[in-house]
């Protein structure tokens, strides 16, 4: 048994989460050595209660871990344990970081800081415009964009990063073989070819509500800073911002309309000390010694220009929510043309 086999058994054992797994490894050293012990010795060495120690030594768990490793190899998904040179260095220093990552694609380069871009699933036209604009500006500096593959702001952040030719990293709240939301499966494939799709969960783990708050700490841990574009006060977006602050990451926020529920969380972040952000320059200015280095490598144009129809559609979208058919009526263009411009 090697380190990956042992870590898979730890991660896949019900009742052992990242914190307890980290404590076990800190107490015992080589995780593979644990599985040479009998149940009583394992209890004494790790402090685990008898039922959990027995579960960890169950041969059925060992077989499940072997199947998981074989299936990951078949799918081209790398298993990257903490301590591996491929493990993202910023994440390695985050509390409760995953013991092992499932990685489809290539993780963030070690020498390039990434920025997380997150926000509500129910983005307004204003939020969508700011996400497009700010990701394009960040892409001009080749900054990798981290997000959660969710509907709304997350999906826009990934799409715009890909369109700009910069790396993007999606962090899942499910296993890689159970992509969520399902309509973003094609987007995930494109991300894997130009960046990485990451999860701390075994391949076939279904999305569950409690997975997403845990996923959010990884988004924060991968990034030097987190940019929040729209989010209510009780949203998952605010959980990620809290993780970022707890991990010592910079928190950036785009101000929103004071009468918008989508902006209530973001405006509260600004009140509590987040960096008010209206351009990529506001973000880069907080990076200290990295700022002149990033400025020096700015691309003159990160993207091809918008088509005339795209320009017209963007100009027809007022502040606040707007339906595509209303934009089509305002422009006097077929709905199919307008939808094509919005999703291009």
Folded structure, characterized:
It is a single chain. This protein folds into 3 domains: 1-75, DNA polymerase, domain 1 (Orthogonal Bundle); 115-296, Rossmann fold, CATH 3.40.50; 308-343. The radius of gyration is 22 Å and the shape is elongated. It is 48% helix and 11% strand. It has helices spanning 3-12, 18-28, 31-34, 39-46, 50-56, 59-75, 89-92, 125-139, 153-164, 185-194, 211-221, 236-246, 264-271, 280-284, 290-296, 308-316, 324-331, 335-343; strands at residues 78-81, 100-105, 115-119, 145-147, 168-171, 196-199, 225-229, 250-253, 275-276. The mean pLDDT is 87. The longest helix is centred in the N-terminal third of the chain and has 17 residues, at 59-75. The chain has 18 helices and 9 strands. The chain has a 9-stranded mixed sheet with strand order 1-2-6-5-4-3-7-8-9, with helices on both faces. By secondary structure, the protein is α/β, with parallel strands linked by helices.
Feature tags:
344 residues; DNA polymerase, domain 1; Rossmann fold; 3 domains; nine-stranded mixed β-sheet; 18 helices; elongated
């Amino acid at each position: 048994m090697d380190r990956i086999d042992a870590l898979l058994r730890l991660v896949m054992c019900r009742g052992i989460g990242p914190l307890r797994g980290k404590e076990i490894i800190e107490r015992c050293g080589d995780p593979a050595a644990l599985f040479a012990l009998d149940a009583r010795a394992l209890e004494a060495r790790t402090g685990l209660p008898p039922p959990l120690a027995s579960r960890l030594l169950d041969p059925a768990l060992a077989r499940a871990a072997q199947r998981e490793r074989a299936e990951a190899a078949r799918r081209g998904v790398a298993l990257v344990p903490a301590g591996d040179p491929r493990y993202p260095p910023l994440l390695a220093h985050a509390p409760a970081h995953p013991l092992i990552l499932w990685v489809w694609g290539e993780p963030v380069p070690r020498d390039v800081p990434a920025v997380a871009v997150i926000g509500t699933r129910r983005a307004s036209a204003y939020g969508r415009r700011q996400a497009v604009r700010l990701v394009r500006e960040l892409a001009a500096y080749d900054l990798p964009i981290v997000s959660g593959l969710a509907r709304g702001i997350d999906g826009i952040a990934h799409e715009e990063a890909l369109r700009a030719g910069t790396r993007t990293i999606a962090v899942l709240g499910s296993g890689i073989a159970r992509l969520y939301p399902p309509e973003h499966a094609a987007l995930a494939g494109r991300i894997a070819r130009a960046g990485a799709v990451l999860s701390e969960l075994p391949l076939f783990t279904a999305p569950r509500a409690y997975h997403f708050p845990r996923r959010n700490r990884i988004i924060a841990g991968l990034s030097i800073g987190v940019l929040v574009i729209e989010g209510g006060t009780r949203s998952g977006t605010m959980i990620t911002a809290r993780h970022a602050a707890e991990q010592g990451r910079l928190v950036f926020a785009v101000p929103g309309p004071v009468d918008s529920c989508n902006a209530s969380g973001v405006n509260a972040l600004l009140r509590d000390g987040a960096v008010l952000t209206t351009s990529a320059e506001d973000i880069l200015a907080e990076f200290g010694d990295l700022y002149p280095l990033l400025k020096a490598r700015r691309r003159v144009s990160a993207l091809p220009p918008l088509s005339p129809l795209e320009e017209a559609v963007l100009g027809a979208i007022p502040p606040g929510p707007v339906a595509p058919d209303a934009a089509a009526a305002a422009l006097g263009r077929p709905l199919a043309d307008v939808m094509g411009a919005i999703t291009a």
